[in-house]
User: Fold this.
Amino acid sequence: MILVAGATGMVGGEVCRLLRSEHEPVRALVRATSSPEKIAKLGALGCEIVRGDLRIGSTLETACAGARAVITTVSAMPFSWAADNTLDMVDLDGQRRLIDAAVQAGVHHFTCVTFSGNIDRPFPLRNAKRAVEAHLRASGLRYTILRPSYFAEVWLGPAVGFDYAGAKATIYGDGRRPISWISLADVARFAAASVDNLAAADATLELGGPDALSPLQVVELFEQVGGRKFALTHVPEDALEAQLAAAPDDLQRSFTGLMLCYAAGDAIPMGDTLRRFPVPLKSVATYAREALAALATA
Assistant:
């Protein structure tokens, strides 16, 4: 049995689908407030549903009981963040509780999705993820830490200002530094492939897409595919620094920290990793074609 924490999220849901496609028994950890539609979808895949909450340790003991592996993609940011569901409660203390529960349950392998090692300046989400990585390494569990770069579906989408439908984009910094944008689905493939894989044992894997493109190169690619010129808005790094200093809470501090690290670039060589894990990676060009084609059929 493989326990997936974060099963109703975009990456976690895809992890469940991939594991079930290989006929792996999957237990999906969901909260009492999780979407009934998403829970029903997990049930339709054949997942066992267990209700629990990273803020409540006793529920994690039940969730981990009998599991041979745990995969966690959980984060309170951005969609679940609330005054009673903060980064400290979930991404820090909650993930550490899950690791401790896995140790107590005799779990053999623990896979944790964090983010790129190039995201290295201090801000709340980054600090939580690095602390959890350290806790996992010290736990005695066999582990895999996956450190993906910026998700294409998020950072090259309207939620953070890349409005390809309206041919407008917000660019953080000068937009000239390359980033190894990666698809959510590809991160899920690495997570699913890490279980029972000796090459993933006690490994920290930096993950990126097949090509490192600067934000301005991505804009040019979308312009070529869609045949429309983009209107660009640049947010200089000094403006982001001021925004970080004035941010009212950990959520805004973390968003701004991620924007500053985006401005600094995040190129990740994937040659050695792909030799050990031959996962087919979606290019930004393929993502652009699919995203724009979806608009045409909407």
Observations:
- The CA atoms of residues 16 and 289 lie 26 Å apart.
- The chain is about 45% helix and 15% strand.
- The mean pLDDT is 95.
- The two ends are 39 Å apart (CA to CA).
